[in-house]
Amino acid sequence: MRKLSILIIALLFLTSVSALELVPEYSSNIIVKDFQNSIQLNLEIKNATPGTYNLYTLADISIKPSETFQVTNKTFQKEFTISPTENLNLEGYYAFTYILNHRGVEKVEEKMLLNIVNLEDIIEISSESIDPASGNISFYVQNKEAIYLKNLTAKFSSVLFETEEIIFDLKPNEKLEIAVDVNEDKLKKTKAGVYIINSIFQMKDGEREIKGNLYLGEKKGITSTEDKSGLLIRSETITKVNSGNVIESIQVKLSRNIFSRLFTSFNIEPTLTERKGLTVEYTWLKEKLNPTEAYIVKAKTNYLFPFLIIILATLAFLGFKRFSETKLEIKKSVSPVKTKGGEFALKVQLALKAKKDIENVSLVDKVPAIVKIYKKFGSLKPDKIDATSRRIHWNIGDLKAGEERIFNYIIYSKVGVVGKFSLPRALAIFEKDNSIHEIDSNNVFFMNEQTRD
């Protein structure tokens, strides 16, 4: 009993340590119904324990070889062939599970998704545009998938030709060109156009018919599209594409009114510009538009420009009006002052300039609570200092147009001031034409950085 327990524990330990892993590789997962092509599966086995293995599935899928094989290395690779059985009769995606069996030790499952399609789903039969004057007719059979189709057997026919039975292979994504003989008289009598190529493929369960297109002669056609978008920035795009196989000449027309034309730009300069009343017509001419070539005209009308012009004109008018109506101008400025004790101190300067003759001018400035007013002033001392409201008053009297006065005073603080220090605006009161007017100075602030000893 003890030996059996040790054996079970050992097996569990080996299973947990090995962590057997499967890494499948295959170029395609497509199975063509009734053609029953196979898929080559390259299976890499990682973290393998040496021993006897076999790969199998319970689905309607054949895996070859089905015999057991020996794994001798920790990493091992082996090729398998995956193919459907006769019982697998469906279309579309089919998922199945295959199992790697390490005999007596462990089993590892892996899933695979097959795409089961008909032959017409992966085969395209068509031709390039055929020039009737050349006398040569050819078409192509194209494999649209990355699978190998071997020993295809088919006959092809159209209004111009009929072939014998042809046996051929199609490599992955191969486009096989097939040239055929054609009667020249019949070719001359056949009108240009698109004709059907009928093909009959021999399959294991019978015949399969696949149709294609044969393009003969010239093909003309211009595809035109127009796209409009945007509100304030209005875009209009006209695209003309030569969908034929001959060179075409085209013309594009656009119109704008005499106002919107001022704010319109084009990606291509117009060939002709013609004014008709309040409308301007633009014309683009392209003499040679090659097959599949696109000619694109883009017009962008930016209605933001007139709005911006109106706004700027309004602001300029208001600014000029305000400037012309200004009777007195106050400029307030500050500058640092060095002190013996290293206290924070600023020199405040107020410059008054009269634009017009004014009467009974008085100037009032307010000092922040954090600072004090230095008792010494310049030549123009204040008439009043209100300690309660911390205001300084100057009674200036009358000022003539162009007359300027400058007032200075110093403020200081024994408490250090760091960062942005803002000062209130100064206020001037005066009379003009028997009316009392008030005007403020500009905002002033001072940046004081912290110093280190």
Task: Name a few traits of the molecule.
single chain, 453 residues, mainly beta, Immunoglobulin-like, 4 domains, five-stranded mixed β-sheet, five-stranded antiparallel β-sheet, 4 helices, disordered N terminus
Q: Would you kindly provide a written description of the structure presented here, covering whatever features stand out?
A:
With 453 residues, the protein is mainly beta. The chain has four domains: 18-114, Immunoglobulin-like; 119-216, Immunoglobulins (Immunoglobulin-like), CATH 2.60.40.10; 222-304, no CATH class; 327-448, Immunoglobulin-like (Sandwich). It contains four helices and 34 strands. It has helices at 2-18, 119-122, 184-189, 304-325, and strands at residues 21-25, 30-32, 39-46, 51-57, 61-64, 69-71, 76-84, 92-102, 106-117, 123-126, 137-143, 149-157, 166-170, 175-180, 193-203, 206-216, 222-229, 233-242, 248-257, 264-266, 272-276, 279-289, 294-302, 328-336, 344-354, 358-366, 372-373, 384-386, 391-399, 404-413, 419-423, 427-432, 435-440, 444-448. The strands form nine sheets. Strands 2-9-8-4-6 form a five-stranded mixed beta sheet. Strands 28-29-26-32-33 form a five-stranded antiparallel beta sheet, with no helix packed on it. A four-stranded antiparallel beta sheet has the order 1-3-7-5, with no helix packed on it. A hairpin with a 7-residue loop joins strand 24 (328-336) and strand 25 (344-354). The radius of gyration is 47 Å and the shape is elongated. The relative contact order is 0.08.
The proportion of residues in beta strands is: over 45%
CATH class wording of the largest domain? Mainly Beta
Euclidean distance between termini CA atoms: 86 Å
Domain count, please report it: 4
Helix count, per DSSP?
4
Structural class comes to mainly beta
pLDDT averaged over residues: 86
Share of helix, binned: 10-25%
Overall body shape: elongated
Which regions contain 5 or more consecutive residues with pLDDT less than 50? Answer: 1-17
What CATH calls the topology of the largest domain is: Immunoglobulin-like
**Strand segment tally:** 34
Rg value: 47 Å
CATH architecture annotation of the largest domain: Sandwich
Largest sheet: 5 strands, mixed
Main sheet: which strands, in order across?
Answer: 2-9-8-4-6
